[in-house]
Amino acid sequence: MVNLFVIALTGDKRVFQPGDTISGVLLLNTNKEITLRGVRVELHGVGNVRIRSGKVTYARRETYLGFQSILLGRAPFQAGSDIKLQPGNYNFPFQFPLPVSPLPTSFEGAYGSVRYWLDAVVDRPWRIDLNTRTPLVIVERVQIRSPEFLEPRLKQEDRMLGWPCCPSGQLHTKARIGCLAYCPGQEVKISGLVNNESSKTVIGFEAQLVQTVLYKAPEATTRTVTEKLYVLKKEQELAPGDQTNVEFDSFVIPPVQPTTKGFGCIDISYAIKFKVRVKKAFNTDIIFPVVITTVPPNTEPSADPVLREQIFIALANYLASRAAAELDSNAQEATEGERNTVWDRPSAPEAVGPSVASSSERPGSTSGQPYQYYRMA
């Protein structure tokens, strides 16, 4: 009987970035002899999107990571003799160097997800395998150095209110924002000037941080989910013929996923809106597309290592809580059957890593076999 079978990560660290090394020990305690083919740890990174349209479900699966480390014995479908593991305690060290190439940040959404995890398996002949799973969080490194994103921006919109047959006059709106790139923990300052030359009454103003998630499935099937992450309201009337300066209190970017684009399943983008609410008329929106990063711009004096670490920890804790809650959920995997599902599985990017990353003597090994780490087929 197996009393203990768990993955213990070094320092209990569960949040990583591209280029980091995931390391730990697989702990196994048994009070009976176990016959096995091998013991392995697998590292997985997968993006999934499922969109139902009528009676058909369109599904896309994108693989970002697929590695396994053979800790004892042989790999699946590899020839060789079985091993008899005697009762006792066993520690199997492992490590996975993550590629330095971009990896999408962990994400859980309405129509899809980006998930990373470790699976440990004791492969037993003619018996049910022993399995254990540990969720991971990976945060993509996103930083903006382009000057055009770091300078203040001003936009203007002149809009005719009413209908073409009975216009109500023009509403002139100017909005100004400090820059177009932010990271969690940074302050956003937005202001505006509104000149009401219409016969309508302005009843208030809003500053909004909006997240837009685009889910992409086969056959050009998409779903877009927009969420207001932060809303700052200013209740102030502006009568016809008046104008006013609108100054909002600054607000802080919350811990959210960075801007993610260029991957096959999910795109995440952000915008900051300056909204003018008009009584009995359509509102006016001035939209500033912004980039959410994980590293403050180098040009700012506040971009010190301590602040970077605080920002990373806040974001990591947020993502880790979501990953732990969602990893074992099958909500995104539900389907009416393969015959009603249209699948598209893009091949894994070539930049994921080498086919053989390392080979060295496994510490604490009693078998004398090398520690193997390679891409899964």
From TrEMBL:
Lineage at the top is:
Eukaryota, Metazoa, Cnidaria, Anthozoa, Hexacorallia
Instruction: Give the residue ranges for region: Disordered.
Output: 329-377
Q: Where is the Arrestin C-terminal-like domain?
A: 167-297
> Gene3D superfamilies of this UniProt entry?
2.60.40.640
SMART domains under this entry? Arrestin_C
What Pfam family is a match for this entry? Arrestin_C
Q: Which GO terms describe its biological process?
A: protein transport
Q: What is this protein called?
A: Arrestin domain-containing protein 3
A GO CC annotation given for this chain: cytoplasm
Compositional bias, Polar residues, is annotated for 356-370
Spell out the family assignment given in the record's similarity comment: Belongs to the arrestin family.
